[in-house]
Amino acid sequence: MDKITKHRISVYGINGCHDAMESNLVEINQVYLEKNSPAYNHEGLQELVANIPQDKVVILNGVSFREKIDTNRSQGVLIKAQVSSFYALPKTEEKNACYVILDQVQDPHNLGQILRICAGGNVDGVIITDRNSVSMTSAVAQVSQGGFAKIPLYSVVNINQAIGHFKDNDFWITSFENNIDSQDWYSIDLKGRSILIFGGEGNGNSDFTATIPMSNNMNSLNVSSAVSAIVYERLRQILS
């Protein structure tokens, strides 16, 4: 996974910071711990902190720590880090490999939720467009609740070129959209090597087009909710 971009982020909370310190996608620049806080007394977190160069670890009293962070939900830990994203798309021999492609997702909360969903749903990576899309930010990382540290993020110039890359590597391509001519989402076989596209760019080059029907005159789900439904339907199919 060469051609790397590194994004500077800040993350707080025991779980997210724990996952960041365990991850090979994250480079820790600084760890701030509040003395006698839940994080300071957390055995698992302290084991990870002990493996970080100690010139990168700062222990602060409560007043000094609160000057570093403007939330009361930190649990006494804040990290500053760099997260890698990648431009070279992956190749894999895994028979059930799966990647999610997002077309122009601009809300950091949506991207953060999607990273969390995909990390929990056994997806191998998330691919975004490098224009008109949010990339990795502190808000994305925080919302992902550790997902940012567990699943690689790729950035592409052109979705159709990405589709071509995956077709050349024997992936099936499924696009999801709100279209009455599309198949129902639960009728698609999502097992095997799968690319799941959310947005309109890839429809012309997809093997399948699917939709999630809505009732009560509701138009569509937001993108993170749609990703959740499909990713966990795929996981159900694989495990059944």
Description:
This protein is an alpha/beta fold and 240 residues long. The protein has two domains: 81 residues, 2-Layer Sandwich (60s Ribosomal Protein L30, Chain: A); 151 residues, SPOUT methyltransferase, trefoil knot domain (Alpha/beta knot, 3-Layer(aba) Sandwich). 28% of the residues lie in helices and 26% in strands. The strands form two sheets. Strands 7-6-5-10-8-11-9 form a seven-stranded parallel beta sheet, sandwiched between helices. The chain has a four-stranded mixed beta sheet with strand order 1-4-2-3. Strand 5, helix 4 and strand 6 form a beta-alpha-beta unit. The protein is elongated. The mean pLDDT is 92.
In short:
With 240 residues, the chain is an alpha/beta fold. It has helices spanning 14-22, 43-50, 62-66, 108-120, 138-143, 159-168, 223-239; strands at residues 4-12, 26-34, 57-60, 77-86, 98-102, 125-129, 153-156, 172-176, 183-184, 194-198, 208-211. The chain folds into two domains: 4-84, 60s Ribosomal Protein L30, Chain: A; 89-239, Alpha/beta knot (3-Layer(aba) Sandwich).
